[in-house]
């Protein structure tokens, strides 16, 4: 069964345009990506929606979509207050092209490059190439950040795939394997650094952590379980050009009760339905030399 893609205007969501990449009729395997922010907002695998999008998300083409896989670039958070929180990639309009057919997977490629608007807030030339690849059991998302040949020099940046995983049951049923032994920055305690001692990580309060990889100790593929049953793995990798491996950190976030209620586009109770497992190069800014490219990739694979 072949893959195909088309672009549709979603009148129910502010008329924003989205690319639908589907295997066959799409009932079993489909992914939807809005040109606004190149935001993946739906991933159907084995007929089941695997990503969380808030039913209070704002679809005005200005505010970042609350859910799916927003792209964070060139900064994580707001260390540079002249730049928006999490940068401008997730609120920019991207171009797209599709390479589908009778292959084992379908791919859509999105592109974004610097403009007068971005140069005003971030004075660097850049080219982003975002590839979304669908197979029956997996979704691979790869963000390539290129500093064009002949540019004025290197630029420092962060990049992150802000993945909202839809939970099969509730947040209190979630267990995560893979963080044990890794250090994390706890944003709930003003950035204190701790070591994760638990083999099985659960969430019972507002959680906002950056689990740290290093060149010597990389966080392994993570396994997500719900009510004891594994349902998804999250793999990630990062490298400079094709040779130099980079440490890919993982941000782990759930707003819990109060923060969820305080975010108008998330809302009361929404915290029960998602967990954010966000691969990124965020613990330090990475210098991308002129002519070089940073690549960050995550592969989500369903297990049940
Ligand atoms: O996911 C980690 C995080 O930095 C949290 O601190 C929280 O702010 C979240 O991102 C959502 O950020 P946003 O700008 O999308 O509301």
End-to-end C-alpha gap? 22 Å
Task: Tell me, rounded to a whole number, the average pLDDT.
Answer: 96
Rg on CA atoms, Å? 18 Å
Largest sheet: 10 strands, antiparallel
By DSSP (H or I, 4+ residues per run), the number of helices equals 2
In terms of per-residue confidence, which ranges show pLDDT below 50 for 5 or more consecutive residues?
A: none
Silhouette: globular
Percentage beta strand? over 45%
Instruction: Identify the bound ligands.
Output: 6-O-phosphono-beta-D-tagatofuranose
Provide the structure class. mainly beta
Feature tags:
mainly beta, binds 6-O-phosphono-beta-D-tagatofuranose, 10-stranded antiparallel β-sheet, 23 strands, 304 residues, 8-stranded antiparallel β-sheet
Description:
The chain is mostly beta strands and 304 residues long. The chain is built from two helices and 23 strands. Strands 7, 8, 9, 10, 13, 16, 18, 19, 20 and 23 form a ten-stranded antiparallel β-sheet that branches. A hairpin with a 3-residue loop joins strand 9 and strand 10. The radius of gyration is 18 Å and the shape is globular. The structure holds 6-O-phosphono-beta-D-tagatofuranose (TA6). The site of 6-O-phosphono-beta-D-tagatofuranose has 10 residues, from strand 21 and strand 22.
């Amino acid at each position: 069964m072949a893959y195909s893609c088309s672009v549709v205007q979603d009148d129910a969501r502010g008329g924003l345009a989205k690319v639908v990449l589907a295997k066959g009729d799409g009932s079993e395997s489909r992914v939807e990506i809005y040109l606004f922010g190149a935001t993946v907002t739906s991933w159907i695998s084995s007929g089941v929606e695997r990503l969380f999008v808030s039913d209070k998300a704002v679809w005005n083409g200005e505010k970042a979509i609350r859910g799916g896989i927003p792209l964070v670039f060139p900064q994580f958070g707001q260390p540079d207050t002249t730049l928006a929180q999490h940068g401008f990639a997730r609120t920019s309009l991207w171009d797209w092209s599709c390479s589908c057919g009778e292959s084992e997977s379908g791919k859509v490629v999105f592109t974004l490059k610097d403009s007068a608007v971005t140069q005003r807030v971030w004075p660097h030339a850049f080219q982003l190439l975002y590839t979304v690849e669908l197979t029956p059991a997996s979704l691979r998302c790869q963000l390539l950040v290129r500093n064009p040949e002949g540019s004025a020099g290197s630029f420092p940046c962060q990049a992150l795939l802000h993945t909202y995983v839809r939970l099969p049951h509730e947040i209190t049923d979630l267990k995560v394997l893979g963080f044990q032994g890794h250090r994390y920055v706890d944003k709930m305690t003003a950035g204190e650094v701790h070591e994760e001692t638990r083999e099985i990580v659960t969430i019972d309060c507002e959680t906002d952590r950056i689990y740290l990889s290093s060149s010597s100790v990389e966080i392994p593929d993570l396994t997500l379980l719900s009510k004891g049953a594994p349902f998804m793995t999250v793999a990630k990798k990062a490298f400079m050009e094709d040779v130099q491996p980079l440490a890919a950190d993982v941000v782990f976030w759930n707003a819990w009760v109060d923060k969820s209620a305080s975010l108008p586009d998330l809302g009361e109770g929404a915290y029960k339905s998602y967990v954010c497992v966000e691969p990124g190069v965020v613990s330090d800014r990475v210098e991308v030399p002129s002519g070089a490219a940073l690549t960050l990739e995550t592969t989500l694979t369903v297990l049940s």
